[in-house]
Design brief:
It is a single chain. Among the domains are: 25-67, no CATH class; 80-114. It has three helices and four strands, in the order αββββαα. It has helices at residues 18-21, 85-92, 95-113, and strands at residues 27-34, 39-45, 56-58, 65-67. A hairpin with a 6-residue loop joins strand 3 and strand 4 (65-67). The mean pLDDT is 83.
């Protein structure tokens, strides 16, 4: 059986070419490099001012910051270790404040429950 010429194409579609897709804007390719050496290319419209083109992006391969200077790629800033909620609270409160808040909370709890505070 002979092949069907319109199989797999939309009704009304014709040959694909530049005239069918419309005008393609001028663009510039900007290369970014990360600390590992990965290159990522991003395309920007040619009429975009240079100050609007970002100096750094996140590299999609490594997740590291990538810059436009191949010889001096940006280094990963020191990542802070994970802190628990308690660690953040201890940064904001002194031991005396913590003891006072705890005593106040216990007093409110005892009042709600109707139990007597220790003498």
């Amino acid at each position: 059986m002979a092949g069907n010429a319109i199989r797999g194409s939309r009704v009304g579609s014709g040959p694909m070419g530049e005239q069918d897709r419309g005008y393609q804007a001028e663009r510039v390719a900007i290369s970014y490099w990360d600390a590992v050496g990965n290159e990522t290319i991003r395309y920007f419209a040619a009429n975009v001012p240079d100050e609007e083109i970002p100096e750094q992006i996140d590299c999609p391969q490594s997740g590291l910051p990538a810059g436009r200077d191949k010889e001096n790629p940006p280094q990963l800033l020191k990542a802070e270790p994970y802190k628990t909620h308690l660690a953040y609270v201890k940064e904001r409160r002194t031991e005396e404040e913590a003891a006072e808040l705890l005593e106040d909370a216990l007093q409110q709890l005892r009042t709600r429950r109707g139990t007597k505070a220790p003498a």
